[in-house]
Amino acid sequence: MKKLDRQVSRKMNYGIKVSRRGFDVINLNKKQPQKTPPNKALPNLLSALALPYLLGAKKQVERYERSASFLVSRPTISTMECMHEASTLFEDLNTVVVYMRKCGKDHRQHRLWEDIRNHIRHAVREEFDKENDSVKNDRAQRLGLDSKLQISIGFDTDAIKVGETMVEIVEVKKYLAWAEGVIAEILGKAKKDGFLKQEKGKSHNKVSS
Question: How many domains does the chain have?
């Protein structure tokens, strides 16, 4: 088999770089001043890492709504598509939840997003049935799941139902708007304080932590 050239010297004009805590992202040989509190820039790092998944969740909402719009005309295929889009949506939402909590920001929907993501992941995705029964049963009770079912999820154009728990798409959109506001505020301050930088002539976003 012919070995493929990896082109390791290729320069990429778009990307993200986040430095480890205490280092200047523009000049990695230059450490941040000692006067900077160790935990001051941590939200900058966390919000920068959360942003791709926030944007991904917004895109997944659009993809879900498009798939759901065909539920009547092609029910079988569209139901399978909705399953995939919903699963990916809640994976992204759960990642946002993790970073929001680490930034000290909590929301009433966080437990629900986490429960739905874990139900799908441990019921039909790669961690199939790899979970402690007590954890699974507690979650099933919160979601109103029948213990005799492996998974229970329903789809409509404006909502997703897991067990007896209804999630309206408009509520997901409201949550994403809230999280986007949190991230924008943190990154806006980071830019003002010099922790967020953009290289001249390129679209490389760099965050010092």
Answer: 1
* pLDDT of the residue at 87: 95
- 70 class by beta-carbon count within 10 Å (0-12 exposed, 13-18 middle, 19+ buried): middle
Amino acid at 55: L
* Domain assignment present for 24: no
| CA angle at 54 for the pair 173 and 177, rounded to the nearest 5° | 35
Instruction: Tell me the pLDDT tens digit for each residue of 164-205.
Output: 999 999 999 999 999 999 998 888 887 777 766 665 555 555
Q: Are 11 and 200 in contact (CB under 8 A)?
A: no
Is residue 207 one of the residues assigned to a domain? no
Entry pTM: 0.80
The residue with tokens 């205490």 is: 22
| Composition of the chain by helix, strand, coil, percent to 5 | 50, 15, 35
Please identify which residue in the block is written with the tokens 């012919």. 2
Give residue for tokens 């979970």: 131
Q: What is the pLDDT of residue 76?
A: 97
Ramachandran quadrant class, 153 (left: phi over 0; alpha: psi -120 to 50; beta: rest): beta
- Judge contact between 115 and 142, C-beta under 8 A: yes
